[in-house]
Amino acid sequence: MARRKIIAGNWKMNMTPSEAVELINTLKPLVENHEVDVVFCVPAIDIIPAVEAVKGTNIMIGAENMYYEEKGAFTGEISPAMLVDAGVKYVIIGHSERREYFAETNETVNKKVLKAFEHNITPIVCCGETLTQREQGVTIDFIRQQIKVAFLNVTAEQAKEAVIAYEPIWAIGTGKVATTEQAQEVCKAIRDCIGEIYDDATAAAIRIQYGGSVSASSAPELFAQADIDGGLVGGASLKADFGQIVNYNK
Ligand code: PEP
Which residues line ligand 1 (CB under 6 A)? Predict the structure, then answer.
């Protein structure tokens, strides 16, 4: 069965709650495409007004992060139950900015992935290499390691539902998009790695996005690749361009 494409926006630390509602109202008519899953991953404080603003549309709301404990003395953190209660369906886990600025590791990513599944939130698990790693020729080894640790103790049934976002760090927010060949090569390697950890059926089911300066012009060719099931989009998700990206196939 063909995998359904998933196109998610990562708003990062942008948009106040009132700006979020305004942006959603602008984007709503532009992102109608019932052949793909459309997700807006928004800052925690925007989640409740965003869930309200997308009611009756094809848009689902995601979070950009969550903690791996249930509740308690973790000042400033957001729990999975809080996200579920607010209407969140997806959560980005282990974005490279969180790994770089907030000390997230493959191990904390794994704890968060397991916790997200416990609460029926679909994790968008991020991986990706630095420019130095690419130049040293260790990209695939590095990403295989990220994936193997992120999926420790995740069952095949859970992994089938997961989303992986391949985001080369050198392509994030830089305007430098990976070539379609580079993106396809790594996404295929990720699928092969999932096949080795689990089985062919799991590898065939899991959805793998490309992220890194995706634009309206680069999306159609990227999303046409055999192992690329959509995109995680930063900068362009805050603009009308996101409508064109979602409708890459029209
Ligand atoms: C991202 O932050 O996930 C991302 C891909 O950003 P951008 O599209 O701006 O490169």
Answer: 10, 167, 172-173, 211-214, 232-236
